[in-house]
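Predict the holo structure. Ligand: adenosine-5'-diphosphate.
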Amino acid sequence: MMTETQRVNSESVLEIDGLRKEFPGVAALDGVSLEIREREIVGIIGPNGAGKSTLFNCIMGVHEPTDGEIYLDKKTDITGEFTSRIVRKGVSRAFQQARVFPGLTVRENMVANQDHEDENIVTTLFNSAEATERMNDLVRQVGLWDLRDRKAGELSTGQKKLLTIAAALMQNPEIVMLDEPTAGVNPNLVDDIIDTIIDLNHDGATFCIIEHDMDVIHTLSDYVYVLNNGMNLTEGPPDVALDDPDVLEAYFGE
Ligand code: ADP
Ligand code: MG
């Protein structure tokens, strides 16, 4: 187990304490605790069935936890809130399936993709010079500038993922949750996605990345939590955590 000194010394953005989620006949999460700090890239990894998607869905308000707490900024309890409210409080996400509106352009997707309760927000964003500048900056930063006025439906899977990551950052969230950002992506584009996430992180974005792929997590993460059977298995910097014999056993053992 790592000591505190091996972790960046910044404020807690997301804290999860003893999270439990029961489905009929199975505890998908059986008391998971973790913390994500400002400007970190934290990887959450574990074999199939470990509880990663359930954790993601509990954080985003898709599932209501059976027990435990989820805190934003140490003080805001978001446990069991509606997704729209969680998003508004600063937790943004990009889905594994890279959902885009295929008939809208890349830039239209940057605003249309936003979670909101207020329909006028799309107009507001389009009419704001500041929002337009942010949109353009993000589209450039994820390498889609040349495709900015193309229909999103014409993009490759990897390009769609880059678009959803950029869109997730539009409203300057406290934290961006990414579910398997490189899954299903052409191997040529995987490095682009990794480099883009690192670049956005250097500019101040905090990421929580849920991933099955150890290599991706190893390259990206400042700190890693390994889940197994709905529980914390180990944690630490990737070099340490991913070499843990218990982790290798959980992944490759039988
Ligand atoms: P991972 O994403 O790490 O592969 P999941 O969170 O999808 O793991 O699943 C954890 C456990 O919870 C598995 O045993 C899975 O079958 C179960 N599970 C997940 N979602 C549901 C659900 N909606 N209903 C019942 N069981 C579920
Ligand atoms: Mg999953």
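Residues 23, 26, 28, 46, 48-54 surround adenosine-5'-diphosphate (ligand 1) (CB under 6 Å). The chain is about 35% helix and 25% strand.
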